[in-house]
Amino acid sequence: MREIGILGLGRMGLGIGRRLKKKGWRVLGYDRSGEARKRGEESGIEVFEDLEFLCGEFSGERVFWIMVPHTAVDEVISSLKPHLFEGDIVVDGGNSYYRDSMRRAKELSRIGVHFLDVGVSGGVWGEEEGYCLMIGGEEEVFRKIEGLFKDLAYGGDGYAYLGRSGSGHFVKMVHNGIEYGMMQAIAEGFELMKECEFELDLKEVARVFRKGSVIRSWLMDLTEKALEDFGDLEGIAPYVEDSGEGRWTVQTAVELGVPLWVIAGSLFTRFRSRQERSFRDRLLAALRFEFGRHPVRREDEEV
Q1: Would you give the distance in Å from CA 123 to the centre of its chain?
Q2: Catalytic residue, candidates 127, 172, 224, 245
């Protein structure tokens, strides 16, 4: 029987578990959150409140798939370690920093446990459509459980073994950096069209961009959907979070001396989106007043 333990039953972990269950896998699940465990049970996953009990339920080869935020991976591995046997396989499918994955692979190898770092793309749509999987670690171990990746992958072949430990998460990091830049370009272009003299139906623009244009893409599909779901976007706060990969991409570029103008700019734009009262902009206004007596608009003035 094909079995897997999924540690972390959030949106992505639950989706992966449900997809594997449909493919005939026996899925054992664990999460600290009672609500997450309840959703797992409702999806037909065998859910456990204790890792030790989960580890004891395997009937054969033991594969553990960790799907938690990168800040929690070490804690999960630490909790799992006392229950691991030599030959077990641990997969980190979250968005971990690739150097952390290299360290974790070394640490687990000392107790005879194998570690694969797997970058996962596809979001919540991956459960039905399949995921894009970027895999690093020992090739022999990858080949041993390749069927797992086939069952998860988009089209059955949307996965790639990329090399030694860390390479999977490195490629996923760059993937997300590229994603930052692509999203920024789409957002800038649509803002220009919104501010122009023509009264454009931006949802219709997004629709036609999807039909054979050079920039057609899944992100453009989602642009049309976002404009359909949220209309003119007036109800959405202009605050854009970053999840870490963009920062790591830019940091790595600095270390390697590789210029990444677009990705770095898109990351800094996300930082800027969180400044409700920018000191920089207020200083610029004050400087314009000092050298040219340009008017300064007070915060209580109407535009």
Answers
A1: 7
A2: 172
CA nearest neighbour of 172 among 12, 23, 298, 18: 12
**Residues of the chain with confidence (pLDDT) below 70:** 1, 299-303
179 included as an active-site residue: yes
Residue spans of alpha helices (H) in the chain:
11-22, 34-42, 51-55, 73-80, 98-109, 126-129, 139-144, 146-152, 167-195, 202-209, 218-230, 245-256, 261-272, 279-292
Catalytic residue, chosen from 21, 23, 179, 203, is: 179
- Distance, CA of 161 to CA of 167 (rounded, Å): 9
Q: Which amino acid would we find at residue 281? A: D
Catalytic site includes residue 172: yes
Sign of CA dihedral 191, 194, 196, 200: positive
217-252-149 Cα angle (round to 5) = 50
Comparing CA positions, the residue from 69, 118, 128 lying closest to residue 90 is 118
Share of the chain above pLDDT 90, in %: 84
pTM: 0.92
